[in-house]
Design a protein that fits this description.
Blueprint (H helix, E strand, L loop, with lengths): L1 E7 L5 H17 L3 E10 L4 E9 L2 E9 L2 H25 L13
Parallel strand pairs: 1-2
Antiparallel strand pairs: 2-3, 3-4
Helix pairs in contact: 1-2
Length: 107
């Protein structure tokens, strides 16, 4: 998994980088086919914003979140991202063929 971390109007400190890496480990644990992750952290007047573009095989997922605290925004971002990746994973596993070579019956 390639991680590109950038900040707009914000310096990326080692503490922020470590927090993002530790939180993105949760996403990696649920879905191993993550190709690339672009995270943009920015500061606007009274809110901190975190955005992520995640490139999976066959799909790109975009998530953004903002809060008054940057660490809370990162935590919320990873929670949203995790839910979307699990949804994508379940959707893909539902399309797989069974052992007869036929699509599973949709109920």
């Amino acid at each position: 998994m390639n991680l590109h971390l950038s900040g707009h109007h914000l310096d990326i400190t080692p503490a922020i980088r470590e927090h993002v890496l530790s939180k993105l480990g949760k996403v990696k644990r649920h879905f191993e086919n993550v190709i690339d992750v672009n995270v943009i952290l920015s500061v606007e007047k009274l809110k901190q914003k975190a955005e992520a573009n995640v490139h999976l095989s066959g799909k790109t997922i975009f998530v953004e979140c903002d809060d008054a605290n940057l660490y809370v925004a990162i935590d919320n971002l990873v929670e949203k991202l995790d839910r979307q990746i699990i949804k994508h994973k379940e959707k893909n596993s539902g399309r797989r063929h069974d052992e007869t070579g036929q699509h599973p019956a949709v109920e």
